[in-house]
Write a structure and sequence with these properties.
Number of domains: 1
Strand order of the largest sheet: 1-2-3-4-7-8
Shape: globular
Radius of gyration: 16 Å
CATH class: Alpha Beta
CATH superfamily: Ribonuclease Z/Hydroxyacylglutathione hydrolase-like
CATH topology: Metallo-beta-lactamase, Chain A
Low-confidence stretches: none
Structural class: alpha/beta
Largest sheet: 6 strands, mixed
Helix content: 10-25%
Strand content: 25-35%
Number of helices: 5
Order of helices and strands: HHEEEHEEEHEHE
CATH architecture: 4-Layer Sandwich
Number of strands: 8
Distance between the termini: 44 Å
């Protein structure tokens, strides 16, 4: 049994059908994460004329997803690693994540509101927050409330 099969059998998670999700204004979009055994989806939530893009795990910003991000009112994005070389000799891309230092300028050029989340325990909240301030972005925190 492969890893996904094991997790499904142990009820760690279950898959909802796309048609079921659409009823609730939710759409799943496959994004690059680099690991074929664990495909990763971004979640798009549309409600009352607003669109939220949520992508906690992503390896690259392909031209296929940029228009969907641009059309979002709010983007919640992967901030696992601030820098590509997050520790000496350890690279974000080798762990299938896009470093914030690369994603922030691209997202900024799209003119969207962005909140970063899903930080690695090796990263400093303060350093990530200071970096994001240059782009007018923020790092998610416990208890964060978002108003539409």
């Amino acid at each position: 049994m492969d890893g996904v099969g094991f997790m499904l059998s142990q009820k760690y998670f279950h898959f909802a059908s796309s048609s079921e999700a659409v009823k609730f204004g939710i759409r799943l979009v496959r994004v690059s994460h680099g690991e074929p055994m664990f495909p990763t989806d971004a979640v798009i939530v549309e409600m009352d004329g607003h669109r939220l893009w949520y992508s906690p795990d992503i390896k690259s910003l392909g031209t296929d997803i940029i228009p969907m991000i641009r059309d979002s009112d709010l983007v919640i994005f992967d901030s696992t690693f601030l820098r590509e070389e997050w520790q000496s000799g350890k690279f974000a891309s080798k762990f299938n994540h896009l470093a914030v230092e690369f994603s922030a300028p691209v997202l900024s050029s799209q003119g969207v509101k962005v909140i970063y989340s899903h930080i690695n325990h090796s990263e400093s909240d303060q350093q990530v927050s200071a970096f994001l301030e240059k782009y007018g972005y923020r790092f998610a925190s416990d208890g964060l409330e978002i108003e539409t």
